[in-house]
Amino acid sequence: TPTQGFNIKSVQSEGFKLNVWDIGGQRKIRPYWRNYFDNTDILIYVIDSADVKRFEESGFELHELLSDEKEI
């Protein structure tokens, strides 16, 4: 199911701590995505492959994120 808002999970093991921020993709949330980029080492961008109608929109949003190098 699509994420509504955001979810946070932390996993800690020997030598590392992983914080996972699952941030929803609703249009009203997208302007806030960049607030979560500080101290980020990796970005995993997930789309709903069953929602073919949103492929183009999703590609545009990913392009916008990646085009702003200083953010990621």
Query: Could you report the average pLDDT, rounded to the nearest whole number?
Result: 83
- CATH structural fold name: Rossmann fold
Q: Name the CATH superfamily assignment.
A: P-loop containing nucleotide triphosphate hydrolases
* Tally of individual helices: 1
The second-level CATH architecture is: 3-Layer(aba) Sandwich
Our estimate of the beta-strand percent is 15-25%
The helix fraction, in percent, is 10-25%
Order of helices and strands: EEH
How do the strands line up in the largest sheet?
A: 1-2
Question: In total, how many beta strands?
Answer: 2
CA-CA gap between termini: 26 Å
The radius of gyration is 14 Å
Q: Please give the CATH class.
A: Alpha Beta
Unreliable runs: none
SSE arrangement:
Blueprint: E1 6-13, E2 16-23, H1 55-67
Antiparallel strand pairs: 1-2
Task: Explain this structure.
- With 72 residues, this protein is α+β, with helices and mostly antiparallel strands.
- The protein has a single domain (6-66), classed as P-loop containing nucleotide triphosphate hydrolases (Rossmann fold), CATH 3.40.50.300.
- It is built from one helix and two strands.
- The protein has one helix spanning 55-67; strands at residues 6-13, 16-23.
- The chain has a two-stranded antiparallel ribbon.
- Strand 1 and strand 2 (16-23) form a beta hairpin.
- The chain is globular.
- 0% of the residues are buried.
Structure keywords:
72 residues, alpha+beta, Rossmann fold, two-stranded antiparallel sheet, 18% helix, ARL2/3
Please outline what is shown here.
By secondary structure, the chain is of the alpha+beta class.
